[in-house]
Amino acid sequence: MPIPTFSRMLPTARLSITQALRLETHFLRGMPRQFSIATPLHRTALSLANLTAGEPVTNTNLASTLLTEGYCCDHSFPHTGTADLVLTEDQPATSSAPYPANVDHSLAYLEEIRSQSFKKFPGLANMMISRNTGQCLYWLVTLLKPRNILELGSLTGYSALWLAEGMKRLHKNPVGDVATEPPVTACELKPQLVETIRANLRQYGMEPWIQVKEGPAMDTLRAFPTGTQYDLIFMDANKSDYINYYETIISSGLLAPEGLLVVDNTLFRNQVCVKYPAVQKILRKVNKVAPLPGLSGEDTGKRTSKTPEYIMKFNQYVAEDPRTENIMLPLFDGMSLIRHRSL
Ligand SMILES: C[S@@+](CC[C@H](N)C(=O)[O-])C[C@H]1O[C@@H](n2cnc3c(N)ncnc32)[C@H](O)[C@@H]1O
Predict the structure, then answer these.
(1) CATH number for the domain formed by residue range(s) 105-264
(2) Does the keyword Transferase apply (predicted)?
């Protein structure tokens, strides 16, 4: 069956958020395509990649996406004053690929893992990184050429696999600090998820690239022999321990001197920005048509009402830490890049 062409339905659509949400619900659900929403003000495409390809779509996560992929700092927040949106296609109508053309299509198996995760763990899968974040991690790996990678919080292995694919692109054979060990270490607390990660690794032949450590990430961090160093660390486990993980990683020297610590969800659906008047304004506007999930995501598993507070405190902690410097990318749910200041 041919994929309906959105532009045929709406050649040049200027829509309110309400209309966009309605359209999204009616037409875009489950379509294996990518669309973007650009505001008339800045014309920046906000990719809705994470809302397509059969994922459950709710008004809530559409609204969150609008916010988290928007501009979230008080000085650069451009949405103020308009709720109008222009919906445009950002893929040719013939394409059915879930990724933009520049992404290696051999990575399509990740899409399978993504949709299986939504089927198997509907209440948790929403916590996965977005496809764009996955691509970004993959790019970081290929640019930085880390010797090894550590991930805290792995769910079903989706983000770890993006990281491992970066390593795979760099090396024909898996090479870790210790040649016999897979170069990516993934830490996951829940046995059922660990089992799923292992099954995914087996199914897609990725066991030589990723080793899984089951249990609390803090135990795993503390168990590393003195002198262990990682060139790239991706932190995406429970937010309540972000400061503890960060402190352990930085003070123990686990992050190599030229290493990069990547931390996910540092904008936490923009809820960390509510103190900014411009953000409050857009939140009020969006809330009229699609209430945000308050401070506890309705479908976000472990996220608790305290999560935005944990993230805010973490961001503050890092910002004030003279040992490191960081930059926050407004990508999906916010991603911070942190490195030693001594560089
Ligand atoms: C945001 S999800 C990770 C998503 C994954 N990085 C991805 O994008 O595919 C957070 C994960 O951390 C795990 N987690 C929670 N507390 C943890 C802990 N103390 N130690 C290790 N993992 C933990 C959760 O079970 C969950 O799978």
Answers:
(1) 3.40.50.150
(2) yes
